[in-house]
């Protein structure tokens, strides 16, 4: 083996080692952020920032509506409705439900082929929190892989109650609307604590495509989904 070949191999090994070290350092930084959010409320998330940039393309003065409220200031109706709609096994799983992901992918593929606007999310509440809190709505294998890693970090560091509190506060509920408080004001001119069971069920039904349903509030599917969620509320335990 020539000296040149040996040097190339050494450089390759060093490059790989540096890359691995960089990836590990990045994951450590993300975990530190997870620990921060375990006790602190986010001021802005990447999803909020991306939506704000999109809105300001046409309206430079556009703003998003977002206001943090504590867990006990959010109606139990909304907590139950969101769990019933998004993640029925929220209290028992460790963050990922692989079977649900496969089922949702197949359902969405069939609905898209039929030209339907119906969609199901295979992601758990913990996965959606990881995406909303740290990542974006983009679709790529890298983003999905990082989402899975973050989900396990979140589940390891936070209680189920904290995960649900964060999710309800930063979830998108309309074109300009983020979080339970802003959603309650936008749709019902009330507070997150005052949401009734029917109102909460309707908000939960909007989650898979909030901007779409913000403009199409009389969608037959939205009405049907709201009734389905309403029927499940009493069966949902809370963290």
Short description:
The chain has helices spanning 3-37, 46-58, 76-86, 98-113, 125-134, 141-157, 160-170, 180-188, 197-206, 210-215, 220-232, and strands spanning 65-66, 177-178. It has eleven helices and two strands; from the N terminus they run H-H-E-H-H-H-H-H-E-H-H-H-H. Strands 1-2 form a two-stranded parallel sheet.
List the helices and strands and how they pair.
Blueprint: H1 3-37, H2 46-58, E1 65-66, H3 76-86, H4 98-113, H5 125-134, H6 141-157, H7 160-170, E2 177-178, H8 180-188, H9 197-206, H10 210-215, H11 220-232
Parallel strand pairs: 1-2
Helix pairs in contact: 1-6, 3-9, 5-6, 5-7, 9-11
Could you describe the 3D structure shown?
The radius of gyration is 21 Å and the shape is elongated. It is built from eleven helices and two strands, in the order ααβαααααβαααα. By secondary structure, it is mostly helical. The relative contact order is 0.15. Strands 1-2 form a two-stranded parallel ribbon. Helix 5 (125-134) packs across helix 7 (160-170) and helix 9 (197-206) packs across helix 11. The model has no long low-confidence stretch (mean pLDDT 89). The protein has helices at residues 3-37, 46-58, 76-86, 98-113, 125-134, 141-157, 160-170, 180-188, 197-206, 210-215, 220-232, and strands spanning 65-66, 177-178.
């Amino acid at each position: 083996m020539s000296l040149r070949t040996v040097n190339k191999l050494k450089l390759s090994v060093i490059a790989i080692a540096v890359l691995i070290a960089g990836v590990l350092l990045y994951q450590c930084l993300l975990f530190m952020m997870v620990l921060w959010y375990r006790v602190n409320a986010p001021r802005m998330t990447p999803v909020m920032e991306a939506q704000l940039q999109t809105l300001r393309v046409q309206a430079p003065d556009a703003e998003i509506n977002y206001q943090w409220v504590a867990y006990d200031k959010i109606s139990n109706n909304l907590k139950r409705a969101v769990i019933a709609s998004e993640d029925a096994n929220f209290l028992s799983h460790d963050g990922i439900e692989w079977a649900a992901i496969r089922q949702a992918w197949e359902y969405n593929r069939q609905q898209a082929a039929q030209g339907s606007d119906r969609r199901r999310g295979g992601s758990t509440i913990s996965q959606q929190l990881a995406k909303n809190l740290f990542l974006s709505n983009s679709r790529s294998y890298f983003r999905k892989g990082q989402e899975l890693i973050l989900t396990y970090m979140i589940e390891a560091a936070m209680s189920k109650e904290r995960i649900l509190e964060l999710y309800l506060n930063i979830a998108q509920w309309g074109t300009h609307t983020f979080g339970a408080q802003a959603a309650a004001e936008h749709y019902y001119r009330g507070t997150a604590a005052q949401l009734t069971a029917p109102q909460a069920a309707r908000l939960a039904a909007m989650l898979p495509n909030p901007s779409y349903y913000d403009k199409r509030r009389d969608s037959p599917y939205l009405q049907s989904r709201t009734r389905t969620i309403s029927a499940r509320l009493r069966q949902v335990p809370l963290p």
